[in-house]
Design brief:
Elements: E1 4-9, E2 13-18, E3 21-26, H1 29-41, E4 49-53, E5 56-60, E6 65-66, H2 78-92, H3 104-120, H4 126-136, E7 146-148, E8 157-160, E9 163-167, E10 174-176, H5 178-186, H6 193-200, H7 206-226, H8 237-243
Antiparallel strand pairs: 1-2, 2-3, 3-5, 4-5, 6-8, 7-10, 8-9
């Protein structure tokens, strides 16, 4: 008899695995609508949708394994990371998804609110927050929108050997800055940034990627804290901010 594995569970949604089937349970069907639409549009491999009966979306498991995990060294080859960069480039060159992403003003407002929370609650030292807020300023400029995944953390990219077999969790897909995806993929794995860029192309701006590392980490910590995640794990968001 196959067991039920809880892949992830928090206040927003939960994902269960039963054999080769993943069951995503989300009370907010808007996120699921975005995910289904984005997977249909994406020019790169995505999980097969087996069925949908709100609030559940059933997906087939992808072959291979995750490219890595935040806070852990990646065992994937350099060629696999390069292939991931090439897949991201293919996505960013595709026609735009109709969903508008966050504007520069909205991003700046979110940064201000999260930085104030981090300092007033004492979660992080003021000087660490201010230093990274200064680095984050780099991304606050007009950008040419691309079709972005929106949550392209390393655990969402699956590889088999040196090939990308698929990308999961598309509920944040939108129009946005391509550098955000590149930063999300390499967050906590800066040693593979050159491999990713080798596959993606040399027109990527490394300073913007590093600035997005700070942005993503500053914006994530409150949510992670409120949903029971360990924000102090080695290689996680706090370590990323300290190394900026």
């Amino acid at each position: 008899m196959e067991e039920v594995e809880v892949v992830v569970a928090h206040h927003d949604c939960a994902t269960l695995r039963v054999g080769d089937v993943f069951l995503k349970i989300d009370a907010d069907q808007t996120r699921t609508d975005v995910e289904v639409e984005a997977m249909a549009m994406a020019p790169i491999p995505t999980p097969e949708i087996l069925w949908r009966k709100p609030p559940v979306l059933a997906l087939a498991a992808l072959p291979g394994k995750a490219l890595g995990r935040l806070g852990e060294p990646s065992t994937a080859s350099s060629a696999a990371w390069t292939a991931a960069g090439a897949a991201v480039r293919k996505l960013h060159d595709a026609p735009l998804t109709p969903r508008p992403g966050r504007s520069v003003d909205e991003l700046a407002s979110s940064l201000d609110a999260e930085c104030e929370w981090l300092v007033t609650t004492g979660v992080l030292p003021k000087n660490l927050v201010e230093r990274n807020r200064g680095i984050a300023e780099t991304v606050l400029r007009p950008w040419t929108p691309a079709f972005i995944h929106g949550d392209l953390q390393v655990a969402h990219v699956f590889v088999d050997g040196d090939e990308v077999t698929g990308v999961i969790d598309w509920s944040e897909a939108a129009q946005g800055d391509a550098h955000f995806d590149l930063a999300s993929l390499t967050l906590g794995h800066r040693e593979h940034l050159d491999d990713v860029i080798a596959g993606y192309g040399t027109d990527a701006d490394l300073d913007l990627i590093r600035a997005w590392w700070s942005v993503r980490s500053l914006l994530a910590i409150r949510w992670l804290t409120e949903h029971g995640f360990d924000i102090s794990m080695p290689g996680g968001e706090i370590d990323v901010l300290r190394s900026a």
